């Protein structure tokens, strides 16, 4: 009986040992599987992290390359535009604009001498280019002369035309000479034209008569009015509408005709844009303007001048 009990006890002990060994093996396998899974996940995370870092580095390098290319293209475009503007400014100063500038400087000197204004009250800026953004891209509008006074802003369009000038000719007021208007394609009855009859020294040997050239120049008053509006819009955007008032357009027929019969301009236009034919008329206009209420301080005039002189064409390239 004792032998049987010892046998049973031994068997139970062996079974217990086997159970402990089995549980140990199972735990070991479980821990090993967990470790393998953890290692696998760590490797995957490390691989993903490495790939992300590499991708970010690649994206950064590609971005830097594209950014550099864009900067180079922008600098090239800006260089071309600035060169274009410089070239246009260099070649667009025709004789008429130079004469007008001398006239304006002379008027300023006379007004200062007469005590009508100080040297700081009248700023004369020649050959200004105003950038205009449009659907077709960046464009510019040229101003022959910009005059800044405490009483206003003035845009002067110089027309240096030799010959007999008829300004504001329409089919309605042309009378018997309406055939001149008829020769201009698609001209409405109220559309104004500026016609210049230019006598030449060439003689027609067969007829013995002097040749005359007939030139049509469109509507200078409309041209300068549009320019004045473009300038007003530009300055309003830069300085604020409350700081910029109406910009006054002026047409100056600056050519001093030698022949007596050519001096007087036949002006038929109903347009309200101011038009002058000599220095005396232009001076009288500015004398009368200086009698008006001042709307700009000297600081305002300097701000307007600075806005004109510091035009950033790159900004308009980016916006266009």
Automatic annotation (TrEMBL):
Residues 105-254 form the NERD domain. Keywords: Coiled coil, Membrane, Transmembrane, Transmembrane helix. The chain crosses the membrane at residues 6-24. Residues 31-94 form a coiled coil. This is NERD domain-containing protein.
């Amino acid at each position: 009986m004792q032998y049987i009990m010892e046998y049973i006890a031994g068997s139970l002990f062996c079974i217990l040992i086997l159970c402990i060994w089995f549980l140990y093996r199972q735990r070991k396998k479980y821990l090993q599987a967990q470790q393998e899974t953890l290692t696998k996940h760590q490797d995957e995370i490390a691989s993903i992290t490495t790939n992300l870092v590499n991708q970010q580095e690649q994206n950064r390098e590609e971005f830097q390359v594209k950014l550099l290319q864009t900067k180079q293209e922008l600098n090239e475009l800006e260089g071309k535009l600035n060169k274009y503007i410089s070239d246009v400014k260099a070649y667009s100063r025709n004789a008429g604009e130079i004469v007008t500038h001398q006239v304006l400087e002379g008027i300023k000197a006379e007004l200062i001498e007469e005590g009508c204004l100080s040297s700081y009250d009248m700023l004369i800026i020649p050959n200004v280019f105003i950038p205009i953004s449009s659907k077709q891209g960046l464009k510019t509008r040229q101003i022959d002369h910009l005059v800044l006074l405490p009483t206003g802003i003035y845009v002067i369009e110089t027309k240096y035309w030799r010959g007999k000038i008829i300004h504001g000719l329409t089919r309605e007021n042309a009378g018997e000479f309406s055939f001149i208007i008829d020769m201009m394609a698609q001209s409405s009855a109220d559309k104004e034209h500026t016609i210049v009859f230019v006598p030449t020294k060439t003689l027609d040997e067969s007829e013995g008569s002097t040749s005359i050239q007939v030139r049509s120049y469109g509507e200078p008053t409309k041209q300068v009015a549009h320019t004045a509006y473009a300038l007003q819009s530009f300055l309003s955007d830069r300085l604020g509408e409350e700081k910029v008032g109406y910009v006054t357009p002026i047409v100056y027929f600056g050519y001093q005709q030698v022949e007596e019969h050519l001096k007087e301009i036949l002006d038929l236009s109903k347009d309200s844009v101011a038009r002058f034919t000599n220095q005396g008329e232009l001076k009288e206009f500015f004398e009368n303007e200086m009698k008006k209420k001042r709307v700009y301080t000297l600081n305002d005039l300097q701000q307007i001048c600075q806005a004109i002189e510091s035009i950033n064409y790159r900004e308009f390239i980016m916006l266009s």
